[in-house]
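Repro case for the chain-ordering regression, as requested:
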Amino acid sequence: MKAISVLGSTGSIGTQTLEIAEEFPEEFKVVALTAGKNLDLLLKQIKVHQPEVVALPEETNVLKLRDLLNDLDLTDRPKQLPELFSGLEGLEIAASWEPADIVITGIVGCAGLLPTLAAIKAGKDIALANKETLIAAGPVVLPELKRSGSRLLPADSEHSAIFQCLQGTPWAENARLSTGIPTPGLRNIQLTASGGAFRDWSTNDLRKVTVEDATSHPNWSMGRKITVDSATLMNKGLEVIEAHYLFGLDYENIEIVIHPQSIIHSMIELADSSVLAQMGWPDMKLPILYAMSWPNRIATPWKRLNLAEIQHLSFKAPDTTKYPCMRLAYSAGKSGGTMPAVLNAANEEAVALFLKEKIHFLNIPKLIESTCEKHINELRLDPNLSDIIYVDQWARKEVQELAQKNVRQFPK
Amino acid sequence: MKAISVLGSTGSIGTQTLEIAEEFPEEFKVVALTAGKNLDLLLKQIKVHQPEVVALPEETNVLKLRDLLNDLDLTDRPKQLPELFSGLEGLEIAASWEPADIVITGIVGCAGLLPTLAAIKAGKDIALANKETLIAAGPVVLPELKRSGSRLLPADSEHSAIFQCLQGTPWAENARLSTGIPTPGLRNIQLTASGGAFRDWSTNDLRKVTVEDATSHPNWSMGRKITVDSATLMNKGLEVIEAHYLFGLDYENIEIVIHPQSIIHSMIELADSSVLAQMGWPDMKLPILYAMSWPNRIATPWKRLNLAEIQHLSFKAPDTTKYPCMRLAYSAGKSGGTMPAVLNAANEEAVALFLKEKIHFLNIPKLIESTCEKHINELRLDPNLSDIIYVDQWARKEVQELAQKNVRQFPK
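-- result from build under test --
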């Protein structure tokens, strides 16, 4: 039995992680939870999983949660109420909670960075679903991993696929430890991309995109921010940067291939030219479960893949004109240092503006590009954590300012 | 550097093995060869690879080869002429030649069984390209493997794919050793089949099949016998039986899926519902190389797979009416004991008759089915080697007699 700590328990990854823990009670025991503002759902999760500790960023929410817990009927109430903590310090306590064997990091965006670093410093195994940890802070995280012996186990679909395929290679040990060292026998990674909500739209039609269009994903059920990232292909661009840090490959050896059915979750090409692929239905539960159960596999009654029923899998090279965010991500990745943090923060801010209908869909890449260009002269190649946090804040402000200044020149 | 012994060096597998040895001289050294009658090619191979020992079944061919070697110009002649041996004993000497680390078994049909058994008894690692060893003699071979510690490394495309996918699973050790023990975490195997020469023919059109039609494979370049087996899907049926012995799965968990592009070479489904696949161009060299280099992988300059260029992969369930041989193979496999040996021998004999234009293509399954039915009452569930050899001979004679007796009632 593994004890797990779930950071971001009320989000998309968090709820799925807890569903898994509930489905396999012999395998997993939840010892710590952190959430944001969804107290109703958090309360339900506490009742089911009875964690030892719960943390929330805001003190007021901790007080509200305490009241909610005290108001519970005796029949409904956990035998032992969890210890409650607040603030960043509270999140870090939950992330490094001693009894936890593995920490699932499901906090979206840069907010997950510091708690994840706390878990790494505590030497926990990390089921990594928070892309930003590595993308923004790769140069800070990799040395910490080496120092603490903490292992990153990818919990998103594409990197899990690569991780699964790598297990049987002579280079699994390297890759597993996220040393950032290139593995000579791993020649190439192919990240598959569904093509997102607009894969069948012409570049011209993208002028008519609404928020509703951009938040409807054809294959995957995910959060709104990630669904927009999937429509711009920034999601895949960020995954390229993550794969670079996780598996130590140069950017020219990490490719994106459009695969509308989302059945092949990613592929690796080995030195001898053999290609290994991992497949499954588009469901985040399998990669989360694998990160939680690795190196073992747990038998599930989940829907089995049937290729004869699916009949066709198709593939094509991505259209860089249609998806400028992809080019921006490769470029930021190659610049390295603080640039991926800027890219990531600018993207988060631009997508948030789009979701609030403050900017048009097509302005997302424009805002990101301008912000990255402005950062070139300030680029730090070997940043520390303060540098990362500073450029993250700077990029967000920059996007806000750019959006206000230029709001009239963008198409409505 | 690995020392290799090649059984059947002038055949399809043998020549490709020697091409690999020539391409990677730092990795492999050829120490023993056996061949049949193609003395010209064998002579060339001896000049290039300078093996320590060469064996041929027929004494007269050994004498001819000795003359050919003695007639060579001094410039052309190996520094040290190989020792020459003849007969089954000679083949067994080459198969168990002491310096060899690994024996590649490329002899087609049942003729490869005894030399392969000699290699197993000598504790060699076996790169197994001779299907019949396991299919006909599984019940004899598995205990020998256990006794000697010899390891079967599949060198054909489908089983290599499964073997490659299995490497990273918690059950790799079991599967690798061909213990015949079911591996609880391996839920299912999907063997892909191109559908052979007649995949786009209607069942009705099969009445018009000629030898030329049946020996033209759409994807793979292979020997004539195997190409016909591919057209009847008996090839895949035999692979199902081989997979049963290699990976210990029940027959209901070994499936065939038609995949015309032959890019996915086979798949495994694990207990958690994850599916792993191995892909590559249809080229036997890669699986042969992997069996030779396992557990390492050797960097090659071979053509790289590009799915965006291939664009489409398709899949469908096989049509059991069109491919009766598939049903016969499953049925023989489930009967077990001596029945797969009967199936295999009857198939070899029926295909040989077809290639000599003595019977029609559609009579291949009929002859096999009648022969298997006749064997039911004689079935031995725990056969020894003599039983296997006896039923092999019996089945061949039976097919010959049936073909002569019934030749008029089969369509011409």
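Ordering looks correct now. The longest strand of chain A covers residues 186-193.
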